[in-house]
Amino acid sequence: MVRISTQLQGDCETLCLATDVQGRRILSGSEDGAKLWCLNSNKSTLTLGGLTEEVCALSISPKHPDKVFVAEGSNLHIYDLHNPSESLITLEPCEDDINELAVSENGRFLAACDDSGMVKIYEIEKECTYKSLRRGHTSICSSIKFRPRKPWEIISGGLDCMLDHWDFSRGRVVSKLNMNEVLEDSVSGGAQLFNPPLVHHVAISPDGRKVAGALGNGSVSMFNFSSTKKEKLLYGDYLLNGHSSSVSQVMFLTKTLLVSGGNDKRVCLWDITDSNANSNQPNQHITLDGKINWVGSISDRVIAVADTSVNISILDIV
């Protein structure tokens, strides 16, 4: 069962989240800026200073959880939570509004994707741009993730219906998947018949072997990497069709447990072991007050969810 354990009361709609698992803290972004929440007290403990525009993406360094990254339009700021009144530095801006930020496992690189379709990689300690990747998406790049256990690989998804697998050290796409082609033989009823399979969000399993794509046609598409020396993304052999409208978020809790959130206000929990592939019914689900904007993990049994209401919901899986 998935249930609401508590709700953090905000002042306006939360657009994005970042979670600090070790410290049980949540960073939230909205048109009012960015706030840090403590899950021990369920209260906001600080507000980041100097932000004047809508905060559209956030990330927390896995190696240094007091170092946080904040996207404000096309601008990108680094903050130290010990001194939240102003940013430590503002990095070179992206070309357009940023949609997602991600930090590599080793804490060395920061990735940002934007509305121009570009992916930009920053080297954090040197406070500079490492690579600008422009030869991937032909429309908005909506999501970006570093691949676990593969320090030079990222996966990006875009509103051109493409899923791109990059070697960013070489600045090139290793493999690409077109969601229209993937779905040609897989479409199955409901919302999937009407809306294009825009890639709104991507997630990669903790072992780096599976990729999930949240699609505009209401499905979650699953992919694997080939077992060859030069690994490439392979066409998925199943879809998860538990939503009645666009899927906005996907997130792995474990390598076999997936969370999805959609514009139908549903948060769905999926067991994606091979025996449960091709399921049209999630193992568990809950309906919240608004369309799902963002999901984040506190643990493999606790989820933070931001929707179009003013609340951030903390969900327990029991």
Detailed description of the structure:
The chain is mainly beta and 318 residues long. It is built from 1 helix and 28 strands. The strands form 7 sheets. The protein has a 4-stranded antiparallel β-sheet, with no helix packed on it. The longest helix has 5 residues, at 179-183. It is globular and about 50 Å long. It starts with a strand and ends with a strand. The model is unreliable at 187-191 (pLDDT under 50).
Task: Describe the protein's topology.
Layout: E1 2-9, E2 14-20, E3 25-30, E4 33-38, E5 43-47, E6 55-60, E7 67-72, E8 75-80, E9 89-91, E10 98-103, E11 109-114, E12 119-123, E13 128-133, E14 141-146, E15 153-158, E16 162-167, E17 172-178, H1 179-183, E18 199-204, E19 210-215, E20 220-225, E21 233-240, E22 247-252, E23 257-262, E24 266-271, E25 284-287, E26 292-299, E27 302-307, E28 311-317
Antiparallel strand pairs: 1-28, 2-3, 3-4, 4-5, 6-7, 7-8, 8-9, 10-11, 11-12, 12-13, 14-15, 15-16, 16-17, 18-19, 19-20, 20-21, 22-23, 23-24, 24-25, 26-27, 27-28
